[in-house]
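User: Sequence in, structure out. Go.
Assistant: Echoing your sequence, followed by the structure tokens.
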Amino acid sequence: MIVELLLLGILFPPDVAQAGEVEPWQAEGFGEKLEFAANAANLEPLFFQPLPGDRTEVLFPKPDAGEGTVHPQGEIAQGEPSTTPEGTTPRQGTPLHRGTPGEQPFIPERIPFRPRMDLTTESKPYLASPAITVMTPSGYGAGWGSAGFGLGLQERTRFTDTSDGVGGFGIGFGNPRENIGLTVGITVTDLWGDAFEDGSVSLKLHRQLPNDFGIAAGVQGALTWGETDGGTSGYGVVTKRFVLDDPENLWSQLYLTLGVGGGQYRSESDIQAGEGTVGLFGSVAVRVAPPVSAIAEWTGQDLTLGVSLVPFRNIPLVISPAITDITGSAGDGTRFILGIGYGFTFDRL
């Protein structure tokens, strides 16, 4: 069950899941980026060209000219007409200011364009964003054009010394910005045993709301086959994103998630007693750096602490190691778990 839940957080990290929907800068940078033509850096500098009728020669004051001496450029500065070539019309305009005696006038020769920032040296945004939950669902989800593969591992299962792993695939449908999105996830359990003989299908309906809210309702294990220990668990969840700084800076974003659910989101004691209760789950995730999030999460049964990171800028790979069952309210001690997700987008039809 724990590994199956682990896929929820890493199969669709928030920004990847919302690629083309919210992000941001995202998917989860936010914002538009200006693109420049490739030949913009090859423009020649601008030269001043003489206008017909202009007096293009510039006269310098003589070195021995004393104060009060009037030079030809002084006459032009006063607005007195200069001799114009025959057949031309003098250029009308505002008279130049009088030059200070002994001061060399400015001679415009050429004005280069401002150096263009080399976009090839700028940092490109990451193709993926770190996850905001470890094992619990968030209020965000995938729309049409987003999909991903996931792998979940744990060093041992509860009350055993046996390792376990699951694999999964998820795909999005609909448009959560304009109406409703649907995320469908297929999970195969017991990778170390009879692979593909046990598994489940999970569904999540979700909608993006104004002010960076996301709301979702879903069923974990809506369809199952073989033997799965997760059962069927319905839930509802809300996520809110707070922008603290520019996405490229440290400590830039905060995500708060709160949900309620039955099944595996209840306490371990209620599950063992067969109580028909519901449980609360939630998480706090801080974007420590553009490729790294720190996550604290209550799964409905116990505390989980982990990180999620994107190790490569140009590869949409997300790795989420964590320690779960920290408080001892479930299981028989802390355990190490690991989630690996690879998200991708395809052309929207």
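User: And one key feature?
Assistant: Residues 15-82 have pLDDT under 50 and may be disordered.
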